[in-house]
Design brief:
- By secondary structure, the chain is α/β, with parallel strands linked by helices.
- It has a domain of 112 residues: Rossmann fold.
- The protein is globular, with a radius of gyration of 15 Å.
- The relative contact order is 0.21.
């Protein structure tokens, strides 16, 4: 297990859909993305901060995307796809994973802000490649396998006054 130190280069990847739905379900509140980014970086060198979002045609979402960029995130936005049978799909799992693997060659630490267990294998791969992986999520909805695969886990529920608006 590698320690945290100021010379580490950090990339922060945020699954906004996962965090949004969990914070709404558990607390009926929104995420404070500025505090989330500050805690993820922890006075280390930020190389990239990417927030993955879904465009759902809600009136306030363009302001949200702009706010993410003002905070320092690159906003990656994907439209919801509606299929002939009426089902809808939109997720960033593959995009986040590809970015993490690519960035892993240029950073010392990747912070995944999500509770999605689909990223467990990604954590294992990155750690095998020598990248420190930290996860930030809500314990109640974060897959145990993801917590176990990361070098550290920050439970956003433990500090709602910091991480929620």
């Amino acid at each position: 297990m590698t320690a945290i130190h100021p010379a580490q280069r950090v990339a922060v990847l945020v699954d906004t859909q996962n965090l949004y739905h969990t914070s709404q379900h558990l607390y009926s509140r929104n995420i404070d993305y500025s505090s989330l980014l500050d805690k993820a970086v922890q006075d280390r060198e930020l190389v990239r901060a990417i927030a993955y979002a879904i465009r759902a045609a809600a009136p306030e979402e363009e302001r949200f995307f702009d706010a993410l960029e003002d905070i320092g995130f690159e906003a990656r936005i994907k439209d919801i796809r509606t299929f002939a049978d009426g089902t809808k799909k939109a997720d960033w799992d593959v995009g986040m994973s590809l970015d993490a693997v690519s960035l892993g060659q240029h950073v010392d630490v990747i912070v995944l802000c999500t509770g999605d267990g689909d990223f467990t294998r990604l954590c294992s791969h990155l750690r095998h490649e020598g990248v420190r992986v930290e996860v930030m999520g809500f314990k109640a909805s974060t897959a145990d396998s993801l917590i176990d695969a990361a070098e550290s886990f920050i439970d956003l529920s433990a500090r709602t006054e910091t991480f929620l608006l």
